[in-house]
Every structure is written in structure tokens, then in C-alpha cells.
Input
Amino acid sequence: MSLTTIFMQLLSGFGQTCLIFFLVLLFSLPLGWLVYFGRASRFKPLSIFVKVYISIMRGTPLMLQLLMWYFGPFYLWKMNIGGGYKFFAIILGCSVNYAAYFAEIYRSGIEAIPKGQYEAAQMLGYRKAETFFHIIMPQVIKIVLPSVTNEVITLVKDTSLVYSVSYIEMFALAKQIAAAQTTIVPFLVAGAFYYVFNLLVAHGMGRIEKALSYYR
Output
């Protein structure tokens, strides 16, 4: 099999990789805020529950979590899981996993804001919601952006883990071609795809970080 043929076959699977990446990012970034607010809640049962959730998400492999989301409904409730559920399980599993990481990143950013800013906003007559969205949030976004970028880059690579539930995307195709042709070339091509994708992501996030710079 020629290099061009391998490239074209992996390119077809790359579309699925991109789809998984963008959907997980779309859901996990805002979900991370909900997780953070749950963790910071004064309602202790909710706060404890969210802390346990974050601990489990960060303390167990994403591959294991994907297997649980995919096979869990059948083994626990004897639900009939069809082919359409596989993609749903992948997006759900990856999103709730990354939401836990983003929640901790957001928390670190919020805790970096001096308490005096809250007090100053209160003296100026700002309500709590106005203080958060108009004063705290813009600063937090700038603070956490480098950490968010690292997680986004990791997400690009973690899309390859969906092969564990037999979903066909670029890495799964590379494995199939490599096994059929007994060659390492598909893995090298797939690695180039991931590398270029990460370069584009890092460049895009760098542009956003530069746009948010206060000292341009």
C-alpha cells in the first residue's frame, strides 16, 4: 500500500477525530463551570458529591471511564445499546472527564484573584453576579488560558482512546492498516496528523492569549 493511499485513508478517519475533539470541547468547557460552582457551593452534600466526582474523574484512566459509559447501561440495567449509542457514550464520557479538569483550572484562576477586588466591587454597589461576570471573569479567563491550552492539546491526543470501544476514527484506522500490511508507516502518518493538529490548536490558543493581553 502506497504512502498516498495510507494518507487518504487516515484522512477520512481524521474527520471523526476532529468531530470528537470539537464536540467534547464544546460541552466540557461550560460544564466545567457548573462543576466548579457545585464544588464551591455552600450546600455541603452537593460540594462533597462534586469533590468525589472530580476525584474519580482525575484518579481513573479515561479509557476505563469510556468502557464504563459504553458497557455500563447493558451490564447494570440490561439496556440494549446500539451503534448510535457508541458515539453518544464517547462524547459524554470525554466531556464529563474533561469538565472535572477544567473545573479545577477555573478554581485555581478564581482563587488567584485578590479578595480586595470583591470588597471594592461591593463598595461600588456591584451585585455578586455583576462582580463575577464583569470584574472577576475577564481576569480569570486570562489567568487560566495557558492551563486550558495544555488540556486542549491533551484532548487532541486523548481522542485516540476511543478505539477502546471500537469506534473507527484515525487511530483505529491506523491500527487496522498497520495490522493488515505489517508496517509501522500508518502510525507515523497518524502521528504527523496529531502533531500538525496540535500545532494549529497551540497557534490558535496563542492568538487568543495574545488578544487578551493587557500589555499589548
Observations:
- The chain has a mean pLDDT of 88.
